């Protein structure tokens, strides 16, 4: 795979079966824990999962900035002439990186349209389960992209950090447009609204630090002020490893 | 009569929609909220009583259990679906004034934000509290809220935002509503919203969950 092309957009398109969704984890993230799960929940989740292959069109766009264009400050990172005010949590995590990869992943709009149709038809339960499964798939897609990146980085004897997205770890979502400026227009079919909302909504964007000394550390939720962040509320994802 | 109301409450609390619905297993084959509401009307129960003694207290219980983390979002939505099935039979009585709503609640996701599900869930829970809900949708400009209040001057307004970037829209909308309709109560909610932010923008309340919104509305009495 010719992944490392300076500032060239790479388009990665997995088959749906390559996106690893763990059924048990998906159920556990609904929050029931030791509480008995109503049988209709797993039944509906399975029905929705069965339809996913015909509903989603997963795509990832990725661009790695050339060496020598990336620097890290205390509360910000810079790439070429663009300064990202990431705040300290992310800046600290990226200190070990030589450069950064920018990415956008999306599963397309069909699942969110399906969810809305069910909601509007008076079935909020079904609509919610569809939306929930769609969210899991887009995170699973980002995990798949990271694993693909790992395979490429291995060939360079490079490593990477975790992925970081605008809107989390104190990084303002309003910086989304700066991130998109490092990718082609509408990467993977994703556009930004004036308020920095990605459309389709079931999309993930962010940056990943890469380089020979890049270190992947745990997310530092204890340092972040976003007490109600969904990453903090939910158990960590099991990440599929590609063989 | 009391038996029907008690069973209706149980059906709503447990998400039993109608006789055909397979959930919950132990109620399989039995009537659900749909048939029970219809039958209660047929035997002459007052629509207002079916609402206020059956559907509303059941949804109050559901909201409190969710707030206390004893049930989860899917359970709450199954209950909402059952409640809506019963409410379908009561709709004509709102038109004929045989049912008097607790008040009118105008809800929308503020301009720039397209998140819909949380707002819809809150709207359903407020419907289940006996209020008439006018859902303006998502990405709603300030002037649409203001216009809606001209049509429903006694309404309470609910503003939803899920992005930190659309909190500015929420502030603008809340201030404009208060400027045009100083007596209108405004309640706000959404993932990035806090009690402090509600105070800062002059909103009357912040609801951390759907039941928080219902509790606030209940605290206003039924003059709205």
Provide a compact summary of the structure.
Chain A has helices at 23-28, 40-55, 88-93, 110-120, 124-155, 176-180, 230-233, and strands at residues 10-12, 59-64, 70-72, 77-79, 82-84, 99-106, 159-164, 191-192, 198-199, 203-211. Chain A is an alpha+beta fold. In chain A, α2 packs across α5 (124-155).
Give the termini separation of chain B.
30 Å
Helix/strand order of chain B, N-terminal first: HHHHEHEHEHEHEH
Number of DSSP E strands of chain B? 5
Low-confidence stretches of chain A: 1-6, 238-243
Q: Would you state the CATH class of chain A?
A: Alpha Beta
Largest interface: A-B, 31 and 30 residues
Tally of separate domains of chain A: 1
Task: Write out key terms for the chains shown.
heterodimer, A: 243 residues, alpha+beta, NADH Oxidase, 5-stranded antiparallel sheet, 7 helices, 10 strands, disordered C terminus, B: 224 residues, alpha/beta, Methyltransferase, Methionine Synthase (B12-binding Domains), Chain A, domain 1, 2 domains, 9 helices, globular
Structure description:
The complex is a heterodimer of chains A (243) and B (224). Chain A is built from seven helices and ten strands. Chain A has a five-stranded antiparallel sheet. In chain A, strands 3-4-5 form a three-stranded antiparallel sheet, with no helix packed on it. In chain A, 33% of the residues lie in helices and 19% in strands. In chain A, helix 2 crosses helix 5 and helix 4 packs antiparallel against helix 5. Chain A is of the alpha+beta class and 243 residues long. In chain A, strand 3 and strand 4 form a beta hairpin. With 224 residues, chain B is of the alpha/beta class. Chain B folds into two domains: 94 residues, Methionine synthase domain (Methyltransferase, Methionine Synthase (B12-binding Domains), Chain A, domain 1, Orthogonal Bundle); 116 residues, Cobalamin-binding domain (Rossmann fold, 3-Layer(aba) Sandwich), CATH 3.40.50.280. Chain B has a five-stranded parallel sheet with strand order 2-1-3-4-5, sandwiched between helices. The longest helix of chain B is centred in the middle third of the chain and has 23 residues. At the A-B interface, helix 4 and helix 5 of A face helix 4 and helix 5 of B.
